[in-house]
Write a structure and sequence with these properties.
Elements lengths: L5 H10 L6 E4 L8 E4 L9 E7 L8 H9 L6 E4 L4 H9 L4 E3 L4 E5 L2 E5 L18 H11 L9 H8 L6 H10 L3 E3 L6 E3 L2 H20 E7 L4 H4 L8 E3 H9 L7 E4 L2 H11 L2 E2 L9 E6 L19 H11 L2 H19 L3
Parallel strand pairs: 3-4, 4-5, 12-14
Antiparallel strand pairs: 1-2, 2-3, 5-6, 6-7, 8-9, 10-13, 10-14, 11-12
Helix pairs in contact: 4-5, 4-6, 4-7, 7-11, 9-11, 9-12, 11-12
């Protein structure tokens, strides 16, 4: 049996506090999710709000969320795991509609205004431990979704493609199977990866919330904004991600924050050659910030049409989505259409 989704749990908690039925409607992708408030004693006509989900909301995200929701004709609504008192106050001051897993909310639409605050965070169930969405499984999914190995390959070949141990392949595939991402044809030995777009969305969410924070090395800086045009990170074992990776791949954005993926043993040589230093938070704000991360997953194949010093395009896509910046979300869609769709589209 599938676990109840975050959206459905939050809508159920909301419905226990509001004098009406609340329903979470999943779209074909997360950009089309909606919260519906159905007729009740205080509501004469149903209300449908486009829903943006951001778990573990932090104050720096709020401006981006306000801009994103402000672009929706219906004003939209934010779903987050928990709006603590300070987050509640900040969201309310910005006029942002939101609800959380506890039932805290602020919903202000034409003819309807309701707030619930002060509810404690719900006690989360311990994770069931789906191996597909733990470290090795995430590397395997990355390899599968980016076309580095077919799911029909042997366990040994899958392990090699993903850069994981042979013993982790089976549990990860079992996890994908149990979550509805594998279909067996004719006999169990013939596997097909299905629901790839949903799998990509879940991968991006898991990577952004659980994997990427653990990869973070620190913020650095450079005086040379054009560094990304003048140095080939591949010569130093590194890759551009985020906005720089997106600009190289799409020519669609003027990068503001640089992102580099590089392992510890390679960083010293690169930093010395490129004059990259630890960021001085109180220093010159005209310097360009570089967010540095450890590499994740296998090296992306050096296809003739793909830059050698750009990380896997799925990671670039996840970097953009994780900013919750409307400008970056537009670039992410362009990247999806032109780089990822060939791998994500169903057979």
């Amino acid at each position: 049996m599938n676990q109840e989704s975050t959206g459905h749990r939050a809508a159920r908690a909301l419905g226990e506090r509001l004098p009406m039925r609340c329903k979470f409607v999943e779209g074909t992708n997360r950009e089309e999710d909606r919260l519906e408030l159905l007729e009740g004693e205080m509501l004469n006509a149903a209300i449908s709000l486009r829903c943006v989900t951001l778990m573990h909301l932090r104050p720096p995200h709020i401006e981006h969320i306000a801009a994103q929701l402000g672009s929706f004709p219906d004003g939209g609504i934010l779903l987050t795991n928990y709006a603590n008192p300070s987050i509640f106050k900040a969201l309310t001051s910005k006029g942002i509609n939101f609800f959380d897993l506890s039932g805290n909310c602020r919903i202000h639409t034409a003819g309807f205004y309701f707030t619930v605050e002060g509810l404690k965070p719900v006690k989360e169930d311990k994770p069931t431990g789906n191996k597909a969405f733990e470290l090795a499984g995430m590397k395997l999914i990355l390899a599968l979704l980016s076309g580095m190995a077919p799911i029909t390959a042997s366990y040994r070949d899958l392990a090699q493609a993903a850069g994981i141990s042979l013993g982790t392949v089976g549990p990860a595939l079992d996890g994908l199977d149990g979550a509805g991402f594998i279909m067996h044809r004719d006999k169990p030995a013939i596997r097909k990866l299905i629901n790839k777009k949903k799998l990509l969305e879940r991968w991006v969410e898991t990577y952004t919330e659980k994997i990427k924070p653990k990869l973070f090395v620190g913020n650095y800086e450079t005086d040379n904004y054009y560094l990304w045009k003048e140095i080939n990170l591949a010569d130093y074992g590194g890759y551009w991600g985020g906005e720089i990776g997106a600009e190289i791949l799409t020519n669609y954005i003027k990068p503001q924050v640089f992102t580099i993926y590089i392992n510890a043993e390679k960083r010293g040589k690169l930093f010395a050659a490129a004059r990259i230093r630890k960021a001085d938070l109180m220093g010159n704000n005209q310097r360009t910030t570089i967010a540095v991360y450890e590499k994740f997953g296998p090296d992306y194949p050096a296809f003739s049409s793909y830059p050698l010093d750009v990380v896997n395009p799925i990671i670039v896509y996840a970097d953009l989505i994780g900013t919750h910046d409307s400008r970056n979300l537009d670039v992410a869609q362009d990247l999806y259409d032109n780089r990822l769709d060939q791998f994500i589209s169903e057979d």
